[in-house]
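YM 10:42: Putative Low temperature requirement A sequence, as discussed on the call
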Amino acid sequence: MAGEHDGAAHDAQSHALEYVFDILFVFTITQLAKSLADAPSWAGFGRTVLLVVLLWWTFGSYASLSRAAASGRGRAVLAVAILANFVVALSIPAATGDSRLVFALAFTLLVGSHVALYVFELDRATRSEVARVVGLRCVSPALVLAGAVVGGSGLVVLWVGAVLAELVRAWLAEHPWVATTATPSGPPDRFVQRHGVLLILVIGEAVLTIGIGLGVVLRDLDAEQVVVLLTALALAATLYWAYFGEGADDTAYRRLTAAEPHHRETLSLLAFGYAFALMLVGVDVAVAGLHDVLDHPTDPASASFGGYLAGGVGAYWIGIGFFRLVFGMPFAALRIVGGVVLAALAFLGEVSGLVELVGLLAGSVTILLIEEIRIHRARPTPGAT
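YM 10:58: structure's back
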């Protein structure tokens, strides 16, 4: 009984640390959205996408190692990772400028902590296997550090190389030459749960950021701002429902549990790697676009902000469609096509930001209604033989 109690206590401690880590990652996403809203440009958009994707692979790597944080040394390393993650988030606004070395060093520590957790789990691996895994994992931080030292256009080239290195590493992880005899992976339920919680936090933080960004108190709100706030909140609720309303996380868990280990890694990479990255980029960019709409709801939206808002919402729907496609869930094609259509609604911003926001909400609700109608029609009629 005492052993079971200690195990439960250790699990609770590790889960608490994991949630702190996840919250700090959400803070990073929020920082990126704010930076993009403060300085809208194609360069800023590219920077945001680059950093989201680069940091997303790091989060996914930690999410797959939930077991490693159950030990005392694992929790200590995770605590170091939390501190590094916090510094990464704080340095985001000037990550490609004056704070680039701080960002690069914190990112290197973040990746190094993950490598330590990974090695802790490779109890049955040979030295050569550990060397291969560690060597591949260290490529991206080396490129990030080099880019921070070089600066300028060299930074962009090297950091794009770091993202590509992570993509290649994820693909090579399934190759027999790289895979170890004891490749660690957390339980599917915890892995899926952490991604779901993260998505809730990202959407919730987006709503909170919108409210704070207005910088007003209740007595200063006018009718236009109330309409915009309610519409934005309804859109956020629709995006939440698009993933959780039909149990996508439950289906993902069942499919991952039933899959063979090798196939499970592939499914995780496609759904929680690529698809989720697109969803996060979508939310981040959409929030940046919302800032301008909230400030000037009845004015025409600028090309940048109008594109951010519609493109972000569309990317989110496309990401969910891809996610459902990976797990063989229905309506994947509908959501992908719907996402493309929603992204094209950026032209509504030429009328006003509010009109574009309402159009995106109406389009999102329409996708869900089409699904409900098709589900209802597919159900057998009561009493029919």
